[in-house]
Fold this sequence. Notes:
36% helix; 6 helices
Amino acid sequence: MKRLINCHDEIVTFITSHLNEFHFTQPPLKLAKWGNSFNTWDIEYGEIKGSCFHFVKDSNFGSFYHLDINQGFTDGKIFLQLGPVYVSYIKYFWDTVQCTYKQLNNSSFSKLSRISPNYSVASPWFIVNNDKNELLKALEQLKNWCFVHMDEINQCYTKQQTKLDRECGCYRVVRNYVQEHITELNQDKIYEIYQYKFPNLPDYSL
């Protein structure tokens, strides 16, 4: 089987330039197999393995709108798909595994544990040959699909946000408080705290 080309740069550049409110989030390399791997079973195409590219943007509700691009490779073809969109009060889900390298159960409380099909949307698979030019064609098809369905995507975010606030309203309160007060911190104040707790800390202040 022909080796899969590296799709990373093309996918990230294309999505961030055409959906410029979203930015790419990359987990540390030591967590890559938890944060980036993609494996699913499709009724029509069978098993599809590959990578998941995570994109996120801030919402106006103290939460984050997540958008994942699934990239698979099977039968010598590149598969691209916009995965089901979702809302969460956690920006980087791979942060929850840094201590234990296991998915922590309480991380699910920051988003809906079960998302109704009426509250989410995903694209079909866009399938092209294992070639850079073909990859760009698939990305163009994916972009066009997103633009046609953007109202539906935004409605899904809104529906999830409404239901999430009913189930987990405390997360919104905490997030809003942090957003409001984070600007009160500065490097000098943070350094003073560390110097107090760790008096032998080297002087890294500017």
